[in-house]
Structure formats: structure tokens, C-alpha cells
Write a structure and sequence with these properties.
With 266 residues, the chain is mostly helical. It has helices at 2-13, 16-47, 58-67, 69-103, 105-120, 123-134, 138-162, 166-174, 179-216, 222-231, 235-263. 86% of the residues lie in helices and 0% in strands.
Length: 266
């Protein structure tokens, strides 16, 4: 009877209300930590009398976020467009090239070292070259954002397409499966967890690429606003712009997580 009572109590504790409380507790910990860090920041700036042009308080940054919201949004959307386009083009190219590598060892041996070499070039070094080639318009920023997304997705996708057990290949041969059937029903599903791991990285790095491209040559965008506010010692606006760019990265990262949960259900 005592064991039955304990089991019943455990079932009640695992019911929907307790699950809801557990989820709320999981969200409360990071939010509470963030609020605590902001409070320490606010107190520290006042306590040590740090000049506002070096480190504004979180309240100052929040005030600028509200006051300069139209200016921030004017520069947010160009960076958002560049990041999205770079994310799409860079990852699409990486996926297609990974498929070519898996189906042809000759293609992999010929072009994979070139991809590694391009990845070793610092993005700050190659960005001016791309601006010279494509001009200071949208194309250069998209190419830079795509380039910074490309290599992690390529490596993960190749690894995922090759991460198929020999038993699955043997079963496919026994069933006389074609190359296309092996790809769509065996290789591609096995590669999706690897692909989404790379897409989570690309969701944040594409924003970095877009901002770096705007540093090289742009008069609009979050990167251009960062440079302008730095040179004019508008530190509150600088911090607000940095937080907004970080929010863009978090938004894209969250979109990838949602897509993964909808697609990779297993």
C-alpha cells in the first residue's frame, strides 16, 4: 500500500501542472541570470563612476533603444536582408557541393583542398577584395555572409551524407535500390542532424559576415551604424546596435531550431 501511494504521488508530481512549473523554472534561470548581470552592470558603472562614453548603463542603453528605434530599424532591415540571403546562398551552395563530393571522389579530391584554403583566409582580409570585385552594394555583403556560412555546412553535410551504416547500404543493394533512392531515403535522412548542427552555427555567423561587409563599405546597416557611433563617441547607441545585432542572431538561431523540430521528428 505504501509503495502504491508513493507511485500515485510521483504520478501527480509528473502531471501537467508540475510539468508547466518545471518549464517555467527552466526559463526563469537564464532570465534571472541575465537580469542579475544587468543589475551588476548598472551598479558597477555608478559605483566606479565610469564615464558614459566608455560604458553606459543598461538604463541608458534602454533609453536609446526607445528613443532611436526608428534609426535602429532603418539600419536593421538591410543587415537582416543581407544575413538571410547570405545564409540561403551559402548553405545551398555547401549542400549541393557536399552532394557532389559524396557521389564523386574525384570532385572531392579536386575541390575540397580549395574550399579548405579559402576557409583559412580571414574574413576581414577577404572582405575588401570582394568589395572591390562586386562593389559596395548588396552583392558584396551577401557574398561575404555566404562565404562565412559555407565551410561549416560543407564539412558537416559531407560527414552526414557519409554517416550511413554498412548494413543499410547492404540492405539497399539487396532490394535493388537505385542511387537516387539511396540518396533520398538513406543518405539524406542520416545527414539532417549534421546539417542542422551546421545551420545553427551559420545562423549566427551570417550576421557577422553581413556586419563585416558593412564595415568595409556601406552607409546603411547595423555595421555602418556601429562604425558611425564609435567614431562619434555615441556609446549608448553603439551598445544598443550591438544588442540589436545579437538579437538578430538569436532570432535566426531560433528559426533554425524550430525548423529542426518540425523536420527532424525522430
Amino acid at each position: 500500500m505504501a509503495d502504491a501511494g508513493m507511485l500515485l504521488a510521483d504520478e501527480r508530481r509528473s502531471g501537467p501542472p508540475f510539468q508547466m512549473l518545471g518549464r517555467l523554472g527552466g526559463y526563469a534561470v537564464p532570465f534571472g541570470t541575465a537580469l542579475g548581470l544587468l543589475l551588476i552592470w548598472e551598479i558597477g558603472v555608478h559605483l566606479f563612476q565610469v564615464p558614459a562614453y566608455i560604458a553606459p548603463t543598461p538604463s541608458d542603453v534602454g533609453h536609446v533603444l526607445i528613443k532611436e528605434w526608428s534609426l535602429l530599424m532603418k539600419n536593421f532591415w538591410p543587415t537582416f536582408l543581407e544575413s538571410i540571403l547570405g545564409f540561403l546562398f551559402g548553405n545551398t551552395a555547401a549542400i549541393l557541393i557536399a552532394i557532389a563530393f559524396v557521389h564523386s571522389r574525384l570532385v572531392e579530391r579536386a575541390f575540397f583542398p580549395i574550399a579548405v584554403f579559402i576557409n583559412t583566409i580571414p574574413i576581414l582580409a577577404i572582405a575588401p577584395i570582394l568589395v572591390l570585385i562586386f562593389g559596395a552594394g548588396l552583392t558584396a555583403k551577401v557574398v561575404i555572409a555566404a562565404l562565412i556560412c559555407f565551410f561549416p555546412t560543407l564539412v558537416n553535410m559531407v560527414r552526414g551524407l557519409q554517416a550511413v551504416s554498412p548494413q543499410a547500404f547492404e540492405l539497399a543493394r539487396i532490394l535493388s535500390a537505385s542511387q537516387s533512392e539511396i540518396f533520398w531515403k538513406i543518405r539524406l535522412p542520416s545527414s539532417l542532424p549534421f546539417l542542422f548542427s551546421a545551420l545553427k552555427i551559420a545562423a549566427t555567423t551570417c550576421v557577422i559576415g553581413a556586419i563585416v561587409g558593412e564595415w568595409i563599405g556601406a552607409d546603411v546597416g547595423l555595421g555602418a551604424l556601429i562604425i558611425d557611433s564609435t567614431f562619434n563617441f555615441r556609446s549608448s547607441l553603439l551598445y544598443a546596435t550591438v544588442f540589436l545585432s545579437s538579437g538578430l542572431s538569436v532570432m535566426l538561431f531560433t528559426m533554425v531550431i524550430v525548423a529542426e523540430k518540425l523536420i527532424v521528428r525522430w
